[in-house]
Structure formats: structure tokens, C-alpha cells
Amino acid sequence: MRYDTITEAIGNTPLVRIDPSVHGLRHIDLFAKLEMLNPFGSVKDRPAWFMARPHLQQGAGGDGTVVELSSGNTAKALALLAGMHGLRFRSVTNRMRVPEIKELLLLLGAEIEELPGQSECLDPTDTDDPLTRFHQALSEPDSTYLHTDQYFNPRNVEAHATGTGPEIVKDLDGRVPDWFIACVGTAGSSTGVARVLREHDPRVRVLGLVADKADFIPGIRTIDEVHQVGLFDPATYDSLTSVTSQDAIDGMVTLIRRCGLLSGPTGGAAYRGAVRHLESVDAELAGTGSRRTAVFIVCDRAESYLSYVRRRRPELLGAARRGHSAAALTDGEVRAEGRAVEVGEARRWMADGDPRPLVVDLRGPHAYAALHIEGSVNIVDELFEELVRTGLPFSKRTPVLLACPVGEKSLRYAALLTRMGHPDVRSLAGGVVAWRDAGAPLVRE
Amino acid sequence: MDAPLYLRPRVEPPLASLLQDAPFLHALCDALGSPLNVLLPEVVAENAERFRSVYRRHHLAGRVYFAHKANRSSALVRRLAACDPAAVGIDVASLDELRHALGCGFTGDRVMATGPKDRDFLWLAARVGATVNLDSAGELEQLAHLVRRHGLGRVDVLVRLSEFESDAGPTGSGTRVLSRRSRFGTPVGRSGEVWEALERYADAVELTGLAYHLDTTAPEEKARALERCVLLMDECRGRGLRPRAVDIGGGFGVGYVDDAGEWERWTTALSEAVLGVRPSLTWRGHGYGLRNEGGTVRGTAALYPAHRSVAGPGYLDALLSRPAPALGRPPATLLLEHLNDLYVEPGRALVDQCGLSLARVLDVRPTEEGPARHLVRLGMNAGDVSLEEHGVLVDPVLLPRDGGGDGRRPEPSGGGPVGVHLVGNLCLEADLITRRLVYLPRLPCAGDLLAFVNTAGYVMDFHAHRAQRQPVARTVAVARGEGAWRWCPDEDYWPLTDPQGVPS
Questions:
Q1: pLDDT at position B246, please?
Q2: ipTM higher than 0.90?
Q3: If you count Cβ atoms within 10 Å of the first and of the last residue's Cβ in chain A, which end, N or C, has fewer?
Q4: Which UniProt keywords apply (chain B) (predicted)?
Q5: Do residue B179 and residue A116 have CB atoms under 8 angstroms apart?
Q6: Residue A193: left if φ>0, alpha if ψ -120 to 50, beta else—which one?
């Protein structure tokens, strides 16, 4: 495979069969359309390229900016496409809730604008909704914005009607699957694929998956939000059902750990939604001797969603912490083994001690730079936690005075270091706050 | 009839037990008339204590300032005045609020003066030793001149900042978080002018902290502003100023509706009604800001998020605990490490569960849409509860005249759930207590009471009962006299006499 440009590598993604021993369906062959293997990493590569191509060819070399309301994969693809054509890309969104995606977009050179939250003291006569303002800015005369408008642009649907849909039919040897299952985001892939499949064989059933209303799954809209999508037409779907973030993560883990498919949560949601729906169909097929086929889409890859997983299912990421840890001490142990010194006593110790104690300030570097005890060194608590895990970071011959804001965290570390065998670690009672309140000197750098 | 779409209120003790004593509430309304606001002053102190417990959890010092504008009540202010002076203060936004707070027992040093201020307000605030939350360099100048001219003591001031969205400076985290433009505060980009003015008027004012108020429910914007303030505090200290507190304003929210499912079902049904796939949920198909454009819902629902899983002190806790956008450490840690006190100014959240509004049912009749929808006319008007002004959607609690459905009274029209439009006592088509079709467990009768939970606490604020204690317009009658206009107060005018009392 040799290409002149990366955009030629968009599309023609594999259709991979899910092992029946994983999904447990006895009369249905379930296939995953691996859109995550598009060059920019998602199903959105297709519509992004299809929608942007006319703009990019026109605007190349100019000073235009491609703008889109996107929280993730469309923005990612558009940012790369814009960059290839010497244009800038700006994403406007109120849905960017996954930090890795935000950082990835910044790496790609995107400008990100996050829309403000709702007003706390509501003004029901306010007509100034942020999206209206956004659209006004786009239509100003002399605007150099190229708006791809994924929620209303028919080329979003076309990309799938000319690509994704026909590819599925081709890979099933000219047959149409009995079931097509897709998560509804812009409704582009579900609408485009459904149209092509129905043209081939109107008996295909289309299942649309939306996110549970109180939940959040990247790339999937809730039942209310789909009504705001211009491409969404309820007639496209034989049924709509909702999935939760827990479904999404369960499905993702199954696809990753059992199928070798490095799917993100949207693909996981599609898989779980598909299997749950097909289980009843499968039961009805028992004894009829007939087989059915179903296809779902794996939209993107797992790597960008680690914080999403960490927040909802931390046990999937965290092996138990090993080594020494201040958090492992009980409050009673901290009180019994931690030694604290009052401000006055600490000042005398620092002036007359032999050897003088090393003063360690556990606060953040900005706070330390702003104001600290003269002669102290700054080791931020997070770093200190790492340091002590594997051993004592100070010689046992060096006495140590630990300081934190109120003397609570430092007492915990004092107890831990004492337990680890350091003979003279003390915590500044009341912390830097007490030090300040006692009128003891603080310096800034 | 469609399945009833309830939005039942969150009711906690002691309000819940008050609501169970229908005979008492009926007796109150019989004696004092409808509408009637009933307050529970003890609850406001309990709410302040809940905020204080968040402070303690994060080892933070500083005060909780009640935003007086939330409610004009004396009982609430007096109850708060009786709280620990070091823990609870009051935020006043008008001259009369300041006078009221002082009259209710707050000493000047527990008062924060915010909002738009005239000279009288500034003078009295400075005179009693209140902290003045400065809106601009111009206001600082005005205050400083007053202090000098009238020989007042040095006044503690906070500087209120705004427009944190620009990313210049050490907190740039790549993305631009847009914020609604505010009329209040000095843009961060122009804060240099304020620092210079503070230095110029050092004899008259002393900077004790920085403040912001963002009109948003989004913690992202607040966390960013908070973090920026912590860093600006250090900048001020670097200039030799000695600020101590960061005032993060209010906006902690209240959950009005108890059940998330009810709220979700109702808002989904609203979208569907706007699209025309189900019957309207509102008077004349009002869409609360949503509209149907070719089968797609456009616009934003102008509704207060009536069900909130995190609100009030819980919201403060969450805000203080989430990582800050640039420095990564939670705001509580930043405040503590940088040796800053925290001020908050909750209004709505502090009067949560503090009261209810009672309205007598005056008349019940079916609408043209059939027996499934009734008009219920109340002894109250839209201005008395302001539910629509605030986009707050919550059902009233039905308090039957006889004290409950114990069978002593014949059940009207089958007795099941019924959809009603609650209309007010004004002769005005627009006087609807709520534009929404409200479902009640059964049809009320004339003489029953409806209790709107929480409205006496907050929703009555700006619109009902002159909560902010700004003066109301006086009315005068004028007449053309001999070569000049003459006037008299409206109430003194009679057609027989000259306005100045000279017989004509």
C-alpha cells in the first residue's frame, strides 16, 4: 500500500467477526466495523474529510480558520486536515469533558473554546444563547471561517453512504446484515449506512443507541440531544435504546481483553447495546435452523479515555499501591507515632539545633515561591509520596522538620518516616498557617 | 389522559413536618390571607453550618456571607446575626439592606457591601467599618475621596475581578473557557489600574482580598477564576499589599425537584412537545425557549436545573476538590497553601428549605381542552412567587381544607391525578403562576391550599416583595400653575385644592 497523502488511507476499514464464545449468541454472527483503524483514529475521519475537502481546496494557503462544534474525533480529524492545508482549526464545544482529548487537540494545533455554563440567576427573557452568537459570528461579512457544520451537513451522511455502508455490504459478500447497530452522535454514520443497507435490502433492522439521559458517554448524545441534530430522523431507526457509561466501559473491556480490539467507550457501548438487544432475537431463533448477521461500529480507540475510565472504574487501572504510604497509616497510628513541635519550639530548634534541622515544605511550588520559611526546601506532597515509597529520602543523621499548610499532612509523613526508622522527624504544629499567625517571618522569592 | 408528569418538590425536615400540619397552615391563611409566605429562620442557621462544615473539612478559615438580596426577611437576617460572628457575615447590595442588617444585629465588621453603590451607601458602609467589595477603580476613587473628606478610618476593601477567560499569564491551560459577560467587576486584564489606585489611596483603603462573581452553574469557569485569584493574591503581596481572603461569590444552587427521573422525563417530554410528537405541556404551547425548526429542536431551555444532585454546600465541596486547570492542585489546597481565607456569598443556597408560599384555591373549572385539564385560580399572582421569572419548575403541595384525603369529603371528579393550569388573581391573560401544566394528585377544591415549597425562601427574591430593599418609585401629581409646574404627592391630591394647599 503506497499513498501520496494520508487522506487516501481513509476508509476501507476491516470488518472483524467477534468470537461467539465471547458474546454468547448462538445463531447470530456479530461483526465489528473497525472505524478506529482510520488514519486519524476514528469513524469521523470520513465525514471530516468529505465535509472539509471543498473548503480546504478553496481556502488552502489563505488565512482561514476551519471551525466546528466538536468535542473530540471530528475536531481531531479536522485539525489534522486543516494543518495539512495550512489553515487553522478551532473547536467550539461545551462537551469537552475528557482531558486527554483536549490535550491531544492542543498538540494537533487546535484552538479550543469552551462554551459557558448555564446562568445561575436565570433570565428567561435572555435570547443570547452562546450557540446563536457562535452562528452569528460565522455569518458575519468578511468572515474567514469555514464551518463544516457536522450536525446539519448532508455530506456527513454522504461520507457513510458512499463509504462505510457499501464496504459493509462488500465484506459480507454482497449481503446486507440483518441488524445494524450504531451509536447516535451526529447521526451521520447511522443515517448514511442505514440508507445504503435499506436500498440493498429493506428488511435490515437498524438499532440506534443513545446515552442514558443523566449519563455521559463521549461521542453519543442523549435522547434529548439527538433532537437538536439536524441529521437525526427518527424514521432511520427501527428502535432507539439507551446505554450507560457502565455499559460502555464493560463493552470496551470485553472488546479489549477478549477480542484484541483496542476500542474506546463508544465502541464498547455499541457492543454492549448490540449484544443486549440481540440476546432476545437469538433466543427466538433457537430451533429455527436459521442464522442471522449483525454489524456494529467501533468508533475509536481506548487510549484517549484513560481518565474517563479512571473516574468511573478506577479498579480497572490501579493495581494496589506498593511500598510505604502515608495513606496506609490509621489516625491512631499518626497520633501515636507522629511528633509535632509548636512554632516557638521549632524556631529555637532551627536557630540552635546541632545539627540544625532540614525544613521541608510540602506545599505546591507556587505557594512556596509566594511565601515560605527561610531556608526551607520545597518537596511537593505528591512527589514526597513517591520518594518515601521506596525508602527514606534523608540521612538518619539529618533531623527533619516537615511543614504543610495546617500541620495535618506533615504529621502523617512524620509518623511514616518515624516508622521507617528515621530517629528525628517532626511536624510543624498548625503548619505554615500557625507560623504566619504567630508572626514568625516568611520570605518570598 | 397522559401519565402525570410530576415535578415533586424536595422537602426536608423541619419543612416536611410543617407541611404535614395542614390545619395549622389553614389557620394561618384564614387569619392572614392568601398569599402568605411562611419562614423557618432556624433552617438558615443550619444551612450556614453546613457550609461551615465544608470549610472545616478543607481546614479553611473565612466567613460565609449571606447574600441579603435573596430575601428581604428580618427573621432570617436576625437569626444569622445570632450565629458565630467569626463564621457568618452578611452581604448587602443596597443602602436599605445595609441599614436593615445593622438593625438586625450585625456589626459593621461582619458586613460586606457589594453590587452597585451610591454615595450614601458607600459612606454608611465606610462609617460602620464594613468591607467594601469594589466594582471598579472609579468606585475605589469615589470611596477614597469620601474617606478623606469625612475623616473616616481606613476602609477594608475587596477588589472584584471579572473576565477570566483570556489566557495571558501563568494560568494559561491551552483552552479558552468562554464566560457570560458580566456588568460587574474589573476585567483581569485591567487589574493593573486598580493596584495602582490602591497604592495611591493607601491612606484611605486597605486591600483585604480579591473577589469574583460568575453567573454560571459550571464549576470549570469558577475553578479557573478561583485559581487565577490565588495567583493574583501573590502578585498583590509582591507589590507590598496584604490581601488575605479570596471571595468566590455565590451561585451554589438549590435542587428544587426531588426525583431526577421526574425531571428527566419532564424535560424530554418538553422537547417532544415542541417537536409536536406529544401534546403540549404548557399554556398555549409555550416552549420555554425551545423551538421547532424543520423537525429539529433549536434554542436553549430557559429553565433552572430544578433537579441537582450536587448543590449548596455539596457544590462548594466539589468546587474546592476538583483539580484546578493550570496548577493541578485542588482549589482548597491552593487556598490553604497560599495562606488565603475563603469568603463565600450564598443567597439561594442559604435559604434552601427556609420557607414556603401558601395560596388559597379560589376557583376550579374545566378548560375547553376537556375534563383532563382544569384551570385553578389562586389567591396569588405570578409576581408573588416569581416561579416563571426564575425558570423554576416545581409542583405545589396540595393541602386540602379538611386536612387530608380521609374520606370526610366527597372526592371530586374521580379523585385521580389531574393536569391543571395555575392562574393568578390578576385580570390579565399573562398572569399564570406557571406556564407549565401542573399535575396534582387530585383535583383541588375552592378553599384548599397550595404550598409552594422553597419559594418564600428564594424565589420571591428580586421580583416579589422588593427583596433588595431598593426604594420603590414614588408617585406625584403635577399641574400647570401660574407660569410654573406645581406638584404634590399622589395621595395628597384632590381636585378642589391647589397642590400647595392654597385654595384655588
A1: 98
A2: no
A3: N
A4: Pyridoxal phosphate
A5: yes
A6: alpha
